[in-house]
Amino acid sequence: MSEDISGNYNIKLIDNIGRVIYEQQNLSPFKTYPINLSKFPKGLYFALVKTEGVTLTKKILLD
C-alpha cells in the first residue's frame, strides 16, 4: 500500500461474503507485518486498513 499512514493502525482481511478472517490491531506504521495467505482458499478478499479517521481498502485476489 503506497498511501502514507500516520499513527497506529488496524488491519482486517475480509472474504467475499463479508466474514473477517484475519485481524490485527494497534500496529506501528514503522514495522512490516507479513500475512501468510497460503492457508486461505482461492478467491477475492479485501484488506481494510484503518487509522485515525482514514480507511484504505485494497482488493486481494488469490488464484
Report on this structure:
This protein is mainly beta. The chain has one domain. It is 0% helix and 52% strand. The protein has no helices and four strands. The chain has strands at 9-15, 20-27, 43-51, 54-62. It has a four-stranded antiparallel sheet with strand order 2-1-3-4, with no helix packed on it. Strand 3 and strand 4 (54-62) form a beta hairpin. The protein is globular, with a radius of gyration of 12 Å. The mean pLDDT is 88.
Brief synopsis:
By secondary structure, this protein is mainly β.
Helix count from the secondary structure assignment: 0
| Record field, number of beta strands | 4
Shape: globular
| Global structural class | mainly beta
Question: Span between N and C termini?
Answer: 20 Å
Widest sheet: strand ordering = 2-1-3-4
Q: What is the CA-atom radius of gyration, in angstroms?
A: 12 Å
Query: What average pLDDT do the residues reach?
Result: 88
Domain count: the total is 1
The biggest beta sheet reads: 4 strands, antiparallel
Low-confidence parts? none
**Helices and strands, in N-to-C order?**
EEEE
Strand content: over 45%
